[in-house]
Design a protein that fits this description.
Layout (H helix, E strand, L loop, with lengths): L1 H15 L3 E7 L4 H10 L3 E3 L2 E7 L5 E7 L4 E6 L7 H4 L4 E4 L1 E2 L2 E2 L1 E2 L1 H9 L20 E4 L8 E8 L3 E8 L2 E8 L3 E3 L2
Antiparallel strand pairs: 1-5, 1-6, 1-9, 2-5, 3-4, 7-8, 10-11, 10-14, 11-12, 12-13
Length: about 180
């Protein structure tokens, strides 16, 4: 019995020495800094990015690249052969995601699925605007009207939408960039 248990432990140890994916929690807006510093320490990392349309002070539209999961990136490592303690002290990183003292391993198929969505030309994951219909409840998540909720009324051209928002106690029609809206259930 002892030799069987020992054999199972050795088999588990051999199986666990191959690298796994782990999530790293970063400081706010420091995903790129953490990525660069982790890669400088010979960690293999993955930071999925999206293209986010953005207007600055009424200026024309610029594309801003943002993390798909703000404050998170993924590291591919083997805790049995590589010290994971250095992640915690890496500039830009807070630490690894855990359940108690146990590191949470990310299923490789999840990472493969995210990677399969990356556009090879831009290196980003394309994000399609939400399909909205008249009467849908929506929330604005960017720009000066961020956090306001209203009712979608109609599409205005390729990129704009008309909303009904309650502003200062009155229902007001507001035209806004469609990419700044999300449906509220």
């Amino acid at each position: 019995m002892y030799s069987r248990a020992r054999g199972l432990r050795e088999a588990a140890m051999r199986a666990s020495t191959h690298p796994d994916w782990f999530a790293v929690y970063t400081k706010p807006r420091q995903e790129q800094i953490a990525l660069a510093n982790l890669e400088a320490q010979s960690f293999s990392c993955f930071l999925p990015m999206i293209e986010q349309p953005h207007r600055q002070g009424g200026a024309r539209r610029k594309i801003r690249f943002e993390p798909l999961f703000p404050r998170y990136l993924f590291v591919h490592a083997s805790p049995e052969t590589q010290s994971m303690a250095t992640v915690r002290s890496t500039r830009g990183a807070v630490g690894l995601i855990r359940a108690g003292h146990q590191l949470i391993r990310i299923n490789p198929s999840v990472i493969a699925d995210i990677r399969s969505r990356v556009d090879p030309d831009t290196g980003c994951i394309p994000v399609e605007p939400v399909c909205l219909r008249d009467g849908d409840n929506v929330r604005v998540f960017g720009g000066p009207l961020a956090t306001l909720e209203g009712v979608f009324k109609e599409h205005r051209g390729q990129t704009r939408s008309l909303l009904l928002l309650e502003i200062l106690g009155q229902e007001t029609a507001v035209e806004i960039d469609r990419s700044l809206l999300q449906r509220v259930s």
